[in-house]
């Protein structure tokens, strides 16, 4: 398998993931259970999209930095620093924009510090520095070590407690950043600071998978290596879940392993079917549009959702869908699909004009 087809497989998986993120983030009203995050322990399809994205980012880190031989040159380090800061700043901007459209321009006293883009930024920065500064044979040991350390934190600090007053993850964010700057819709901020520890391990597992994809051999050899890796991760995560239940909110070690395993298996399936020819099916072409401008479309979807809600257009469209589709859950799904198509249209214009925006 050549480099081009491999990257197409990754872009399709990335596009599938981003389209899924947009879908589950933009239901209106009462959504199906599978399109909502687990309240606490458990796993729904909705809980797969963000970890899939982080896993893919790990693969992308390997494929990007291998071009410079993983050398910590000044240019490489500057690019890593610039991208890390930019990603974090975009996350803060989204949080600020949500307040600003309601007229609260000076919302800095209660601006949420953490969110999806901020976690992406930190994980990208840490793993990229590891990639250029540490022997790659340490990738799996370091990932395992981080998960082990986080396990100790969870067990010693009531990390599974559904109570912010005693949960160490919630208390760490509260004491470091203050009540006004943290997430309030669950006992624990799902993108909080301590949860970054297993997320870095998560991205390191993706980084290792990137090395498997990069190795020489036939398409079958690469697919088999990725399948085996995914199967091992899935089995280990399943075993670990008996003592440490799957939990997206706290990014439990079992959750990291299971979701990395599932992402690896899906990538293996795509790699095994890729034979050069990116758009050999309408479905692949659809996801490819999202995949080649993934971060831009995710950010634009967040900003667009805020604007449409503020001007009342979201409610107007939902009411129109609900007038035709009476069941509330199906109407919610209809709105979410409409929003995915709306963002696809934006991505398609960029794709047709060969505009690929890299942050």
Number of helical regions: 13
Strand % is under 5%
Q: How many E strands?
A: 0
Oligomer: single chain
Q: What percent of residues adopt helix (DSSP H or I)?
A: 55-70%
User: Low-confidence parts lasting 5 or more residues at pLDDT below 50?
Assistant: 1-6
The general outline is globular
Elements, N to C (H/E): HHHHHHHHHHHHH
How many structural domains can be distinguished in the coordinates? 2
Task: Give the integer mean of the pLDDT values.
Answer: 91
Task: Work out the radius of gyration.
Answer: 20 Å
> Whole-Å distance between the termini?
28 Å
What would you call the structural class?
A: mainly alpha
What does the largest sheet look like? none
Description:
With about 350 residues, the chain is an all-alpha fold. The protein has two domains: about 1-35 and about 275-359, no CATH class; about 55-260, no CATH class. It is about 65% helix and about 0% strand. Helix 1 runs antiparallel to helix 2 (about 50-65) and helix 8 packs antiparallel against helix 9 (about 255-275). The two termini are about 30 Å apart. Residues about 1-5 have low confidence and may be disordered.
Structural features:
globular, about 350 residues, mainly alpha, 2 domains, disordered N terminus
Quick take:
With 359 residues, this protein is mainly alpha-helical.
List the helices and strands and how they pair.
Blueprint lengths: L2 H23 L23 H17 L8 H27 L15 H18 L5 H18 L11 H10 L18 H19 L4 H22 L12 H21 L8 H10 L2 H18 L1 H12 L3 H25 L7
Helix pairs in contact: 1-2, 1-9, 1-10, 1-11, 1-13, 2-4, 2-7, 2-9, 3-4, 3-11, 4-7, 5-7, 7-8, 7-9, 8-9, 11-13, 12-13
